[in-house]
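As a warm-up, study this chain.
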Amino acid sequence: MKQHLLTAAVLVAVAGVGVIVAPYLHPSIATGESQTPSTTLTAAPSASSTTASATASNALRDLHALAVSDAYVPGYDRAAFGQAWADVDHNGCDTRNDVLRRDLTDVLTRAGTHECVVLSGTLHDPYTGRTIAFHRGETSSMAVQIDHRYPLGLAWQHGAAAWTPTQREQFANDPVNLAAVDGPANEQKSDSGPGEWMPANTGDACTYATTFVAVATKWRLSLGTADEHALDRTLTRCATQGSN
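Now compare it with the structure written out below.
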């Protein structure tokens, strides 16, 4: 069946954090059957202001194509999205450590783990703008957490409840939707969408909004009315200013 190439999911970096650029196909368009999108981590150079503006314009176009729904869907349970940080790409390393290695700088890994387990590193946090020293430990690890920019609980409300368990697990570990961030900021955000929560660091607003729309488009998730309005405002400004 003819494949329909969708807009590239572009995660633009801030302050030393890498960029993900990954073309994608809708889960069920490529073959006419239900499929799970690729979750391979890739990196690319930082985009210029011109590219950022074009990216925001593309995201704004994709935003207007998304369904909007405020229907309540009961029954959310984190367990419905599978084992936390499963090794879905089968690279021998769990998703949390994959994202830590991608997003931190000066990374030190544990010997004998094939450079998987991150012991320490530095995070230039997109949500707060702070620089955070990460040290693996029973409590210290919580200083840096991995956030689902489009939250799992929100995804359940907007389409994920109808997915297969495999699709939900793939979504929960999709690197395009994941970012290493400040722990308290992540806990404050929780399952909120952009209508209720936006990064305190306004420099991340365009990246956050662009990624949110890219994930919703990739996974065919709808948006709540408040979230759609917040994203429209943010992306319109980003497209006009051509920066994060």
